[in-house]
Amino acid sequence: xxxxxxxxxxKFINYLRTQMQxxxxxxxxxxxxxxxxxxxDSSYNTNVYTYTQxxxxxxxxxxxxxxxxxxxxxxxxxxxxxxxxxxxxYLLEEAITENxxxxxxxxxxxxxxxxxxxxxxxxxxxxxxxxxxxxxxKLLIKEGEFVLMTN
Length: 151
Known about the structure:
- The protein starts with 5 loop residues before the first helix and ends with a strand.
- The relative contact order is 0.15.
- By secondary structure, it is an alpha+beta fold.
- It has two domains: 6-53 and 136-148, no CATH class; 61-134, Rossmann fold (3-Layer(aba) Sandwich).
- Helices cover 39% and strands 20% of the residues.
- The chain has four helices and seven strands, in the order H-E-E-H-H-H-E-E-E-E-E.
- Helix 3 (80-99) crosses helix 4 (104-114).
């Protein structure tokens, strides 16, 4: 099954757990797990895992400032979309400034040649194809919260 959002995913899991008594583990993409903890039936949420590039426990002063500023500005906690967007804007600004150009090919070449950079929520590695490689974290939804899995 492919679920387009946390809403669809939560409805599907809740139905399988409550109506069909299915206890099979579910492994969700980061997109399918956004805001899911508020929607999923907490009495049946064991064995629901998600994988994300966002680490809420990332321990830097800059990240703590970002989180508090984001929450104050938007009234919600940041997530991977917020940090990835923030980092992308600053990477694009750097590429445009360093090249003194807004040409797409020059921006892409700069980013690929840069290879890696430290973002608001971790390190980014750009491979020779221009794809982003970043650490992925496995989380378990337990009692309505995401819990980082250590192994």
